[in-house]
Design goal:
The protein has 151 residues and is of the alpha/beta class. The chain has a single domain, classed as Rossmann fold (3-Layer(aba) Sandwich). Strands 2-1-3-4-5-6 form a 6-stranded mixed β-sheet, with helices on both faces. The longest helix has 12 residues.
Amino acid sequence: MCRLIDEALAKGVKVAVCSTSNEKAVAAIVSFLLGPDRADKITIFAGDVVPRKKPDPVCYFLFCYFDNVQPLMCFAIYLLAAETLGVDPSSCVVVEDSAIGLSAAKAAGMTYTAEENFVTADAVFDCIGDPPEARFDLTFCANLLQKQYVS
């Protein structure tokens, strides 16, 4: 995941971590797993800022492309993240790890992938991989938004 986040940040793609957990816990986990320098560049949206939790539109990792920017009224974490980052939900790719999160991403109008075998996912990976075997990268995310990929 660090490789993909670094690639996104280097290209100016907005990256957020969203969770229904509290902000302090999420920030600590992100800093521990990704390192403090990388964590400082990622916006965190936590469950203590929205009144409704899963299966409302909530997420794990969110990669936002800024092509079709439109303001919207947001009511849950996925949509709050898109609104705050100034991106349209349809220009976001969500990396999820739960069926509830996948349902929430779809409800928010976002494209998603999952780390497990979810038959409703837009794409499924057993491993994100590192170069030269990388199959999941920023180009794939952009193609996923346009449905130009092979599962």
